[in-house]
Amino acid sequence: MTSLEAVAVHLPRHSEPVAGRLRAFGHSDQEIRHYRLYYGFSEIRVDHDRSMAEHLIAAGRGLTELRGQEHRVRYVLQAKTMPVSAPYPVNPLHEARAALGLTHAPAFSVSQQACASVLVCVELAGRMLAQDGDPDALALVFAGEKTFTDDARVLGATAVMGEGVVALLVRAGDTGRDRMLGYASRICGEFYRGSRMTDEDHERWAVRYPDVLVEVITAALDHAGLTIDDIRLILPHHVNQLSWRKVIKGLGLKNLDRLYLDNLSKLGHCFGADAFINYCSARADGRLTPGDRYLMTAVGLGATFSAMVFEH
């Protein structure tokens, strides 16, 4: 079993309206209105003056549980959506590892599942720690990126990308704050072109997307021995609200009450960090209490669908 020991979030202080970002990419006023009213995007957070490494370091230093426990960290992982987030030869992950006093721990990135890489990183970290056999060992996982390239700023007709980074402490076993109960993932390779899909691909993607995500969520619930009725809250990745309405209907839920959308309009899609940003907000809002079961989702271009079930 895998557990979350702690989660910290770093968000830039500066907010920008998505209208300016979309207009810069040639979107019309009517399209911008569509993004706002139907997709739900209003603002994004960005920090033009901070590097990727500085974002990672800020998130890592937000983990109060890490202070004085650096020696327990066995691995440092970065879940990446974009293959490039800094100019060559800069390595933000290695810079952050050094700044946090973790140079004794091997560091590597997982990127082939794009925004879904964060959930596989959590699962992978738990498996590696379990194989090592040290019950006190931890892994540090980062997710979230800079909007460094044009491809990283607007995701087709799906989302507007914002900056925000999470740092997670993962451990093997069930003694952490949140226990992982189930995980499922599915890759639909026919959509391998990602952001460069053809119009025909986009049409098929729009049809397949909600059905496949419902299938993966159901598989994760089955793995956990639960049903959707056992779930207190769904902590989603931030794609447009229209697609979520179809997913919620496919799950047999009558409304969006259990879907945590409080951050979508003001943060945009923060790559793989969304679900864990929502986790911290939901805890702060009192929406998660001890014993609650909740579900995280992530979908990466390429296309990987993932879901993970936890008990708080």
UniProtKB/TrEMBL annotation:
The keyword Transferase applies. One of its GO terms (molecular function) is acyltransferase activity. It comes from Nonomuraea fuscirosea. Keywords: Acyltransferase, Transferase. It comes from the Bacteria. PANTHER family: 3-OXOACYL-[ACYL-CARRIER-PROTEIN] SYNTHASE 3 (PTHR34069), BETA-KETOACYL-[ACYL-CARRIER-PROTEIN] SYNTHASE III (PTHR34069:SF2). One of its GO terms (biological process) is secondary metabolite biosynthetic process. Residues 221-311 form the Beta-ketoacyl-[acyl-carrier-protein] synthase III C-terminal domain. InterPro entries: ACP_syn_III_C (IPR013747), Thiolase-like (IPR016039). This is 3-oxoacyl-[acyl-carrier-protein] synthase-3.
